[in-house]
Design goal:
By secondary structure, the chain is an alpha/beta fold. The chain has helices at residues 3-18, 40-53, 69-74, 82-87, 92-95, 111-115, 120-136, 150-158, 170-186, 205-223, 237-245, 249-252, 257-271, 282-294; strands at 27-33, 58-62, 97-98, 104-107, 139-146, 161-166, 194-202, 228-234. It has an eight-stranded mixed β-sheet, sandwiched between helices.
Protein backbone atom coordinates (compact mmCIF):
# COMPACT_ATOMS: atom_id res chain seq x y z
CA UNK A 1 0.00 0.00 0.00
CA UNK A 2 1.44 3.39 -0.99
CA UNK A 3 1.46 6.55 1.12
CA UNK A 4 -1.59 8.02 -0.63
CA UNK A 5 -3.64 4.88 0.09
CA UNK A 6 -2.51 4.94 3.71
CA UNK A 7 -3.48 8.59 4.05
CA UNK A 8 -6.93 7.85 2.60
CA UNK A 9 -7.37 4.95 5.04
CA UNK A 10 -6.49 7.20 7.97
CA UNK A 11 -9.05 9.79 6.87
CA UNK A 12 -11.67 7.04 6.65
CA UNK A 13 -10.77 5.90 10.15
CA UNK A 14 -11.27 9.42 11.47
CA UNK A 15 -14.60 9.78 9.65
CA UNK A 16 -15.75 6.49 11.14
CA UNK A 17 -14.69 7.61 14.61
CA UNK A 18 -16.61 10.86 14.12
CA UNK A 19 -19.97 9.14 13.56
CA UNK A 20 -20.84 8.86 17.24
CA UNK A 21 -18.80 11.78 18.50
CA UNK A 22 -19.77 15.41 18.89
CA UNK A 23 -18.54 17.45 15.90
CA UNK A 24 -16.71 20.06 17.95
CA UNK A 25 -14.19 18.57 20.34
CA UNK A 26 -12.62 19.91 23.49
CA UNK A 27 -10.33 22.91 23.26
CA UNK A 28 -6.79 21.52 23.28
CA UNK A 29 -3.96 23.71 24.57
CA UNK A 30 -0.42 22.40 24.08
CA UNK A 31 2.00 23.81 26.66
CA UNK A 32 5.65 23.68 25.70
CA UNK A 33 9.03 25.37 26.24
CA UNK A 34 12.45 25.58 24.69
CA UNK A 35 14.26 24.29 27.76
CA UNK A 36 13.51 22.58 31.04
CA UNK A 37 13.17 24.39 34.33
CA UNK A 38 11.05 27.32 33.13
CA UNK A 39 7.95 26.25 35.05
CA UNK A 40 6.03 24.70 32.14
CA UNK A 41 4.35 21.92 34.14
CA UNK A 42 3.44 24.31 36.95
CA UNK A 43 1.78 26.50 34.34
CA UNK A 44 -0.17 23.49 33.02
CA UNK A 45 -1.38 22.39 36.44
CA UNK A 46 -2.25 25.81 37.85
CA UNK A 47 -3.88 26.93 34.63
CA UNK A 48 -6.05 23.80 34.81
CA UNK A 49 -7.06 24.71 38.36
CA UNK A 50 -8.09 28.20 37.33
CA UNK A 51 -10.02 26.89 34.31
CA UNK A 52 -11.84 24.58 36.69
CA UNK A 53 -12.75 27.50 38.94
CA UNK A 54 -14.21 29.19 35.87
CA UNK A 55 -16.57 26.25 35.47
CA UNK A 56 -14.67 24.29 32.84
CA UNK A 57 -14.18 20.53 32.82
CA UNK A 58 -10.43 20.01 32.51
CA UNK A 59 -8.16 17.07 31.71
CA UNK A 60 -4.35 17.28 31.66
CA UNK A 61 -2.51 14.96 29.31
CA UNK A 62 1.05 14.50 30.58
CA UNK A 63 3.00 13.92 27.37
CA UNK A 64 6.47 14.32 28.86
CA UNK A 65 7.97 10.87 28.29
CA UNK A 66 10.96 11.40 30.54
CA UNK A 67 9.60 13.28 33.56
CA UNK A 68 6.20 12.81 35.20
CA UNK A 69 6.05 16.39 36.45
CA UNK A 70 2.26 16.65 36.59
CA UNK A 71 1.89 13.77 39.02
CA UNK A 72 4.79 15.14 41.09
CA UNK A 73 3.11 18.55 41.41
CA UNK A 74 -0.19 16.91 42.32
CA UNK A 75 1.54 14.46 44.67
CA UNK A 76 -0.42 11.60 43.09
CA UNK A 77 0.92 8.46 41.41
CA UNK A 78 -1.43 7.18 38.69
CA UNK A 79 -2.36 3.51 38.70
CA UNK A 80 -2.36 3.23 34.92
CA UNK A 81 -1.05 5.15 31.92
CA UNK A 82 -1.70 5.18 28.20
CA UNK A 83 0.39 2.03 27.70
CA UNK A 84 -2.19 0.12 29.75
CA UNK A 85 -4.95 1.40 27.49
CA UNK A 86 -3.13 0.16 24.40
CA UNK A 87 -1.91 -3.24 25.58
CA UNK A 88 -3.76 -4.12 28.78
CA UNK A 89 -7.33 -3.42 27.61
CA UNK A 90 -7.94 -0.59 30.05
CA UNK A 91 -10.70 1.87 29.22
CA UNK A 92 -9.95 5.56 28.87
CA UNK A 93 -11.85 6.21 32.10
CA UNK A 94 -9.62 3.72 33.95
CA UNK A 95 -6.48 5.46 32.74
CA UNK A 96 -7.69 8.84 33.99
CA UNK A 97 -6.49 9.80 37.47
CA UNK A 98 -8.48 12.19 39.67
CA UNK A 99 -6.67 15.23 41.05
CA UNK A 100 -7.69 18.24 43.16
CA UNK A 101 -11.02 19.98 42.46
CA UNK A 102 -12.10 17.19 40.16
CA UNK A 103 -9.37 17.85 37.62
CA UNK A 104 -8.32 14.64 35.90
CA UNK A 105 -5.04 13.77 34.25
CA UNK A 106 -3.71 11.00 32.08
CA UNK A 107 -0.11 9.86 32.06
CA UNK A 108 1.11 9.23 28.54
CA UNK A 109 4.36 7.50 29.38
CA UNK A 110 5.70 5.22 26.66
CA UNK A 111 2.15 4.72 25.44
CA UNK A 112 2.27 7.79 23.21
CA UNK A 113 5.24 6.42 21.30
CA UNK A 114 3.63 2.98 21.14
CA UNK A 115 0.55 4.55 19.54
CA UNK A 116 2.63 5.40 16.49
CA UNK A 117 3.51 1.74 15.96
CA UNK A 118 -0.03 0.36 15.82
CA UNK A 119 -1.50 -1.27 12.73
CA UNK A 120 -4.58 0.10 10.96
CA UNK A 121 -7.21 -1.75 13.01
CA UNK A 122 -5.52 -1.01 16.33
CA UNK A 123 -5.19 2.61 15.29
CA UNK A 124 -8.90 2.93 14.50
CA UNK A 125 -9.75 1.50 17.92
CA UNK A 126 -7.39 3.81 19.77
CA UNK A 127 -8.51 6.96 17.97
CA UNK A 128 -12.11 6.21 18.90
CA UNK A 129 -11.03 5.88 22.52
CA UNK A 130 -9.20 9.20 22.41
CA UNK A 131 -12.27 10.89 21.01
CA UNK A 132 -14.11 9.81 24.18
CA UNK A 133 -12.09 12.37 26.15
CA UNK A 134 -13.89 15.12 24.26
CA UNK A 135 -17.11 14.03 25.95
CA UNK A 136 -15.48 14.35 29.34
CA UNK A 137 -13.70 17.71 29.04
CA UNK A 138 -14.19 21.24 27.80
CA UNK A 139 -10.44 21.87 27.84
CA UNK A 140 -7.57 19.39 27.46
CA UNK A 141 -4.12 20.68 28.41
CA UNK A 142 -1.16 18.80 26.93
CA UNK A 143 2.00 19.18 28.98
CA UNK A 144 4.84 18.30 26.60
CA UNK A 145 8.47 17.73 27.30
CA UNK A 146 10.89 20.62 26.86
CA UNK A 147 13.07 21.32 23.84
CA UNK A 148 12.92 20.41 20.17
CA UNK A 149 12.95 16.62 20.28
CA UNK A 150 10.74 14.79 17.78
CA UNK A 151 8.27 13.80 20.49
CA UNK A 152 7.75 17.43 21.54
CA UNK A 153 7.56 18.79 18.01
CA UNK A 154 5.03 16.12 17.05
CA UNK A 155 2.55 17.61 19.52
CA UNK A 156 3.36 21.24 18.81
CA UNK A 157 3.23 20.84 15.04
CA UNK A 158 -0.13 19.04 15.22
CA UNK A 159 -1.71 21.55 17.63
CA UNK A 160 -3.80 24.52 16.59
CA UNK A 161 -3.21 26.29 19.93
CA UNK A 162 0.20 26.48 21.62
CA UNK A 163 1.25 28.10 24.90
CA UNK A 164 5.02 28.69 24.73
CA UNK A 165 6.60 29.35 28.12
CA UNK A 166 9.87 31.22 28.55
CA UNK A 167 11.66 33.20 31.25
CA UNK A 168 13.84 36.35 31.20
CA UNK A 169 16.99 34.21 31.09
CA UNK A 170 18.83 34.71 27.77
CA UNK A 171 19.19 30.95 27.22
CA UNK A 172 15.47 30.45 27.77
CA UNK A 173 14.60 33.13 25.21
CA UNK A 174 17.06 31.67 22.70
CA UNK A 175 15.62 28.19 23.19
CA UNK A 176 12.06 29.51 22.80
CA UNK A 177 13.06 30.95 19.43
CA UNK A 178 14.63 27.59 18.52
CA UNK A 179 11.26 25.91 19.14
CA UNK A 180 9.49 28.40 16.89
CA UNK A 181 12.10 27.93 14.18
CA UNK A 182 11.74 24.14 14.38
CA UNK A 183 7.94 24.40 14.17
CA UNK A 184 8.23 26.60 11.10
CA UNK A 185 10.45 24.06 9.37
CA UNK A 186 8.16 21.19 10.31
CA UNK A 187 4.80 22.72 9.46
CA UNK A 188 4.06 24.88 6.42
CA UNK A 189 0.81 26.21 7.90
CA UNK A 190 2.32 27.34 11.20
CA UNK A 191 0.92 30.83 10.61
CA UNK A 192 -2.56 29.35 11.12
CA UNK A 193 -1.72 28.39 14.67
CA UNK A 194 -2.49 30.47 17.73
CA UNK A 195 0.89 30.71 19.46
CA UNK A 196 0.64 32.43 22.84
CA UNK A 197 3.88 33.51 24.48
CA UNK A 198 3.94 33.47 28.28
CA UNK A 199 6.89 35.04 30.07
CA UNK A 200 7.31 33.40 33.47
CA UNK A 201 9.28 34.57 36.54
CA UNK A 202 9.35 38.25 35.66
CA UNK A 203 10.39 40.87 38.20
CA UNK A 204 8.24 43.58 36.58
CA UNK A 205 5.53 43.86 33.95
CA UNK A 206 7.86 46.06 31.92
CA UNK A 207 10.42 43.26 31.81
CA UNK A 208 7.80 40.85 30.48
CA UNK A 209 6.68 43.30 27.80
CA UNK A 210 10.25 43.93 26.70
CA UNK A 211 10.96 40.21 26.30
CA UNK A 212 7.78 39.65 24.31
CA UNK A 213 8.46 42.60 22.02
CA UNK A 214 12.04 41.49 21.31
CA UNK A 215 11.15 37.87 20.62
CA UNK A 216 8.09 38.74 18.56
CA UNK A 217 10.09 41.21 16.46
CA UNK A 218 12.74 38.62 15.62
CA UNK A 219 10.18 35.89 15.01
CA UNK A 220 8.16 38.16 12.74
CA UNK A 221 11.22 39.26 10.77
CA UNK A 222 12.96 35.94 10.25
CA UNK A 223 10.14 33.40 10.49
CA UNK A 224 7.24 35.52 9.20
CA UNK A 225 5.37 34.45 12.32
CA UNK A 226 3.29 36.58 14.68
CA UNK A 227 3.13 35.69 18.38
CA UNK A 228 0.27 36.53 20.73
CA UNK A 229 1.18 38.21 24.01
CA UNK A 230 -0.83 36.24 26.58
CA UNK A 231 0.88 37.87 29.56
CA UNK A 232 3.49 37.48 32.29
CA UNK A 233 3.79 35.63 35.59
CA UNK A 234 5.68 37.12 38.55
CA UNK A 235 8.63 35.59 40.32
CA UNK A 236 7.14 34.33 43.60
CA UNK A 237 8.81 32.27 46.35
CA UNK A 238 5.44 30.68 47.16
CA UNK A 239 5.76 28.57 44.02
CA UNK A 240 8.98 26.99 45.26
CA UNK A 241 7.34 26.18 48.60
CA UNK A 242 4.38 24.59 46.83
CA UNK A 243 6.65 22.39 44.73
CA UNK A 244 8.39 21.13 47.87
CA UNK A 245 4.98 20.35 49.40
CA UNK A 246 3.90 18.60 46.17
CA UNK A 247 0.76 20.69 45.96
CA UNK A 248 -0.28 23.24 43.32
CA UNK A 249 0.44 26.80 44.44
CA UNK A 250 -3.07 27.89 43.45
CA UNK A 251 -4.45 25.57 46.11
CA UNK A 252 -1.76 25.82 48.78
CA UNK A 253 -1.41 29.61 48.59
CA UNK A 254 -4.68 30.96 47.14
CA UNK A 255 -3.81 34.58 47.96
CA UNK A 256 -0.24 34.58 46.62
CA UNK A 257 0.77 36.96 43.85
CA UNK A 258 1.56 34.04 41.55
CA UNK A 259 -1.91 32.59 42.12
CA UNK A 260 -3.42 35.91 41.11
CA UNK A 261 -1.28 35.74 37.98
CA UNK A 262 -2.67 32.33 37.08
CA UNK A 263 -6.22 33.60 37.67
CA UNK A 264 -5.66 36.49 35.26
CA UNK A 265 -4.00 34.20 32.71
CA UNK A 266 -6.93 31.78 32.74
CA UNK A 267 -9.40 34.64 32.38
CA UNK A 268 -7.51 36.03 29.38
CA UNK A 269 -7.42 32.64 27.69
CA UNK A 270 -11.15 32.09 28.21
CA UNK A 271 -12.50 35.59 27.69
CA UNK A 272 -9.81 37.77 26.19
CA UNK A 273 -8.18 35.99 23.26
CA UNK A 274 -9.37 34.53 19.99
CA UNK A 275 -9.55 30.76 19.86
CA UNK A 276 -8.33 28.84 16.81
CA UNK A 277 -11.00 27.81 14.33
CA UNK A 278 -9.21 24.65 13.25
CA UNK A 279 -9.95 21.07 14.29
CA UNK A 280 -10.37 20.55 18.00
CA UNK A 281 -10.24 17.51 20.24
CA UNK A 282 -7.53 15.11 21.36
CA UNK A 283 -8.55 12.53 18.78
CA UNK A 284 -8.04 15.07 16.01
CA UNK A 285 -4.67 16.08 17.42
CA UNK A 286 -3.36 12.51 17.48
CA UNK A 287 -4.70 11.98 13.99
CA UNK A 288 -2.73 15.04 12.87
CA UNK A 289 0.41 13.67 14.55
CA UNK A 290 0.06 10.36 12.75
CA UNK A 291 -0.64 12.08 9.45
CA UNK A 292 2.46 14.27 9.78
CA UNK A 293 4.68 11.37 10.81
CA UNK A 294 3.44 8.68 8.42
CA UNK A 295 2.01 10.41 5.45
CA UNK A 296 4.16 13.44 4.66
Amino acid sequence: MNDMDQAANLRNIVKKADINMKPLGARVITVTSGKGGVGKSNVSVNLAIQFKKLGKRVIIFDADFGLANVEVIFGIVPKYNMFDMIYNNKEITEVLTSGPLGIEFISGGSGVQELLRLDKNQLAFMIEKLYELDRLADIIIIDTGAGISDSVLDFVAASSEVLLVTTPEPTSITDAYAVLKAIKRRHDNVDQKLINLLVNRTDTTAEGKEIFNKLNKVTNKYLDLELTNIGYLPNDKHLVKAVVEQKPVSILFPKAIITKGFEELADRMINGTAQPEQERGLGNLFTNILRLKKFT
